[in-house]
Every structure is written in structure tokens, then in C-alpha cells.
Design brief:
Blueprint (H helix, E strand, L loop, with lengths): L1 E6 L8 E6 L5 E4 L4 H12 L2 E2 L2 E7 L5 E6 L3 E2 L3 H9 L2 E3 L7 E3 L9 E3 L13
Parallel strand pairs: 5-8
Antiparallel strand pairs: 1-2, 2-3, 4-7, 5-6, 6-10, 9-10
Length: 127
């Protein structure tokens, strides 16, 4: 049997969960005060998922970076691989909130999307 203690992050209550996985794969959750805690505990035991937030380089933008995030949770085990992809990603300005920067990153089913606008940099005029 595998037993893990964790704090549920699905609502503001922050319940302390005890999650047990039997040798036959059956998972039980205790300590939750709402049904979301059961779902969270089971998911954490099987395949922890996270929303990833980061930034990518913007070419010719009025800001050098644009903030981005996954549009749905991705497996925690691939976060460092996605970060490696993002550090080598460049987008051309302008960028708009909701623009898909990377579609289906690492075949996770999640897109990397922009979370703010970055305008194109005005060319300075020579005197």
C-alpha cells in the first residue's frame, strides 16, 4: 500500500488529505471537506497535473517578453521539458491575449497561450 499526505488546493479550505492506494490500484481519500478533494487526491496519486505559467521572448515588441500559460493542466513530469521549449521560443509582435503560442505542447493536449498584449515597437525616426 502507498500512502501520501497532501494539502488540497482545489478550494480555499486547504484540507489535509490522506490518500491511500492499495496494491490492487484502488484509491481512497480521507480528510476532504468537499467532493473536489477526492478528485484532487486521486489525480495527485495517479498523475499530478499543473497549470504552467512562464514567459517567452517577443521580437520587435514594446516589451521584451510576453507572459504565457497552459490553457489546461499538464502532467507535472513534463514541466521541465516544456520550460526548455519555452526558453527557446520567440514570437513576433504584436501578440494578443489568447494567441496560441504553441499548439498541443508535447502532445499533452494543452496549448501555450499568451496572457497579455504586447504591441509592435514603433520604429524610431532618424533626425
Amino acid at each position: 500500500m502507498k500512502v501520501e499526505e497532501m494539502v488540497c488546493i482545489m478550494c480555499p479550505l486547504g484540507c489535509r488529505l490522506i490518500v491511500k492506494q492499495e496494491d490492487n490500484g484502488e484509491i481512497t481519500v480521507s480528510g476532504n471537506r468537499c467532493p473536489r478533494g477526492i478528485e484532487y487526491g486521486k489525480q495527485e496519486m495517479v498523475e499530478p497535473l499543473r497549470i504552467l505559467t512562464s514567459s517567452v521572448l517577443v521580437l520587435n515588441g514594446d516589451m521584451p517578453l510576453v507572459s504565457v500559460k497552459t490553457n489546461k493542466p499538464i502532467p507535472r513530469r513534463v514541466i521541465m521539458q516544456v520550460m526548455d521549449i519555452l526558453k527557446n521560443t520567440k514570437v513576433e509582435a504584436p501578440v494578443r491575449v489568447g494567441d496560441i503560442i504553441i499548439k498541443d505542447v508535447l502532445n499533452t493536449g494543452a496549448d501555450i497561450v499568451a496572457t497579455r498584449n504586447v504591441e509592435r515597437r514603433e520604429k524610431s525616426s532618424a533626425a
